[in-house]
Queue: 2 jobs
Job 1
Amino acid sequence: MNSALLQFATWLSERSFSVGLHESFYMYNWIETTHVMTLMLSFGMLAIVDLRMLGLAFANVPASKIAERLDKPMLIGFTLMFITGILLFTAIPVRTTQSLWFRIKIVLLIAAAINAWLFRGYLLAAKGSWDADAVAPRRARIAAGLSLALWCGVIMTGRFIAYDWFDCGGDNPAFIDWAAGCVAAE
Amino acid sequence: MLLSFFEWLEASSLGVFMKDLPATFAVVEAVHLMGLALLGGTVLAQDLRLLNVIMRDVPSNVVTEQGHRWFKVGLWILLLTGVPMLAGVATKCYHNPFYWTKMIALAVGILFVFTLKQPLLRADHATLKPATLKLMALASMSVWFLVAASGRWIGFSG
């Protein structure tokens, strides 16, 4: 699988739009800036919803109201994150494919998505029961705490992609090279 | 004079601590980004509410009051991580135009929020002119965007 991924990444890196993105100072850096700025919309709105569940913000507004009203701006944020993220990957595909941090980030993103999906059903059933309570029940608080922790992990691993600590070809323990999916040079 | 302060900061134990291990800077930097998300999120929630874009059925007084509480938490996270980051690369920042852009924008932003926006918004919003509220929101989003974007660009140049 790792060699197939690397093959795809190598193919992508040879396309002219990949080279163009990689070599354009302003284009690449503005995409990167947009990716970071959009954290305010995606993670920012998500954090407000999670803080509401924990009873730490907007305690006097029904929980489902906060979640529903912030749903749209949050999803706009995540869409922008996704688009700019794909572009950033396109600009540097080979190194990113073999990045330990990128791989951990993807796992955390999947975990966060599953957590959000499970929580969504639980929240929809809340109307008329704990909705107006200042602090949500334990299960909602656990989901909110988990959501905050996972996204902090996403931000941290995302930022670490830029560092070359565990790049393939470096002096890494075998398990690091395995986790990063390094394909031995032929 | 000013440069000597930046040189002193970089040579201080805080500056040495931030430079000693590459991971120290990276971790502090990541927490700085979490603070950015919180500060920016609360700025957007308040300002988009004042512009009648989101949460229209939640009173804007409630949104700005609650938003400002967490804005202050975000600001503290950013200041407490920003100072060590500066200490690690102080002399580089001194020669970086984006750093100074950010610092000026940050000073304007803090003054704007604590001496103008917040004192005004503590009043019942129904007694304020809608145009005042909207201008306040646009000014706030602009200045914090400038702070965040110029901050990101410190790392892109030299």
Job 2
Amino acid sequence: MKLFGRPNMRSLRAAWALEEAGTERASSPYVERLTARPALARAPAGIRRIANRSIRA
Amino acid sequence: MNQRHLADWLRRTAVSNMPLSQRRRTLLRMASAFAASAIVAPLASCATRAAPHFASDPFTLGIASGCPRPDSVVLWTRLAPGPSGSHFLPPENIELQWEIAHDENFRGIARHGTVLATPALAHSVHAEVTGLEPARTYWYRFKSGNAISATGRTRTAPAANALNQRLRFAFASCQQYEQGFYAAYHHMAREDVDFVVFLGDYIYESSWGRNHVRKHTAGEPRTLDEYRNRYALYKSDRDLQRMHAAAPWLVTWDDHEVKNDYANDQSEDLDVNFLVRRAAAYQAYYEHMPLSLRSLPQGPAALLYDSYAFGDLVNFFVLDDRQFRAHQACQRPDRGGSNVVANCAERLEPARTMLGTEQENWLREGLARTRARWNVVAQQTLMAQNDRTAGPNQSFWNDGWDGYPGARARLLGNLAASHVSNPLVISGDVHCTWVADLKVNYDDATSPVVATELCGASITSQGPTPKQIAATLTENPHIRYGNGAHGYLLIELTRERCTATLRGLASEKLVDSAVSTLATFTVDDGRPGALPA
């Protein structure tokens, strides 16, 4: 039995881009679709690892 | 909270061990917290909408699964249309349908059902799906009205008597949102893990650190709605959502889910209404995690510690070292929270507790009973002693296990006395990977290694400098390895060995950072102590 029937395409598009193809390990098509992502913005320029860091553990 | 729950909570806490004056103050605060808390709100006191029409995607916070058992998992989501910070729906119950299938295309439905998302729990749902087959991968999704969620993947635990040969999991902690992106989860999702263990500091209540790559959208949360918004912000991250979708999680909390360095009923700023705040934070935590109903908070109390069996290969003991602990020893005047202390006699008092009497007894009994090949104690913070002063003098950070050496010796002594097979302690909190030998007595060079500690990297939170790491390794020879890279530890257990791989990000400041293997250690069956692979 298939409970849900035809997916709501607008919600699907608003969620993850499941239709996109992945580029790494092809062993799991689900993971490929799950982790595929469009080009994303990078962090602001000038951000580097810092040497003297305080910790709030 | 009724009288029975109150009595249960009192038994689980260190309150009953407190001096009378402190106990009276604590009980008064608890009474106030119960009065202010509306956690056990009537679920059916408002209208129910069976088929709502959503103008935008209500699954913006993703989906998740957790608490994997041989025949059950918990499926989670929260209906929250709109951008972060405005994730609130009208005060109506909303019906959701869930289905769980043997295949990603949902051709073979294993189970399905309906749950009610109630405004009392921020329209979160925790569907406890039973009747599943052990050691099996399932796919699941939710539907409500015209909206359907993305598809999640989960996996049940092997049967209790299964002679399973292999288990693979990753563990993570400390994901301060402002200090980095969650690229670690993008890579973790590709590691083909059976499950994820999260060891605390899922959100941060406070803004701190430098070189932020993104910002909290509001100040420090104190109320239930403010904590809900903080979770909504963190859970809006797509890499975090994807990792939740990819595998079930076992979760526990640390301090930042409530307030930095809180201990039991005390906050670092000695807020007299702290238990009211803790009740709000605990409820928001439950609302946003794939937890079973047993963890639903009752006022400022929640039952989070639990054990999980994965065939005869491994047992997990997931601890809560925040809720029931004694206050930190030798605190600064007029202040709670942590401190680095030297010559602190209070720290050495044997009765001091990290877990509370009831949890400590539960753990001792569980360790005495376990017959699993590997036994993992999953808990918040570094367990190995970490002397912070070079040379013969010693100083210790009183918020970690070093602040509770009597409790640590009891736990490790029980491991040794019970002859627990292959005990592993996994830890977080300190934003650095440490691999350590655990001993009952660190002042005795001949004290044997009784367990292996693998303390994991932070996902983003800033950690110690290379110089500080080097000093720690020099001063504490039982700590065999340290690395400040961000990322996660990947653990593979077989009947012969545990293999721990540190997967480190090139930079947590890059949303699409690469990851690489920075170190690999093994622990052989029957021989505590990690060896470089």
